[in-house]
């Protein structure tokens, strides 16, 4: 069963998540030869104050 985690900055709408869930599920079903009920997707919305890279916070 494919488990997909998406970590990204907070601020996307429910509709954007819905559309991405649909597109990812379709791709995994087609390429991975599985059924839609086996594809699990978790969105982790992270505030920019909690995300760092390149020696600084994303909020900076």
Low-confidence stretches: none
Class from secondary-structure proportions: alpha+beta
Radius of gyration: 14 Å
Distance between the termini: 38 Å
User: Major beta sheet, specifics?
Assistant: 2 strands, parallel
Average pLDDT reading: 98
Which bin fits the share of residues in helices? Answer: 25-40%
Strand content: 25-35%
Q: How many individual β-strands?
A: 4
Order of SSEs: EHEEE
Shape: elongated
As laid out across the biggest beta sheet, the strand order is 1-2
Oligomer: single chain
Q: Total number of helical segments? A: 1
What's the helix and strand layout?
Elements: E1 3-9, H1 14-32, E2 40-46, E3 52-53, E4 56-57
Parallel strand pairs: 1-2
Antiparallel strand pairs: 3-4
Q: How would you characterize the overall build of this protein?
A:
This protein is of the alpha+beta class and 60 residues long. It has a domain of 39 residues. It is 32% helix and 30% strand. The strands form two sheets. Strands 1-2 form a two-stranded parallel sheet. Strands 3-4 form a two-stranded antiparallel ribbon. The radius of gyration is 14 Å and the shape is elongated.
Give a short overview.
32% of the residues lie in helices and 30% in strands. It is built from 1 helix and 4 strands, in the order βαβββ.
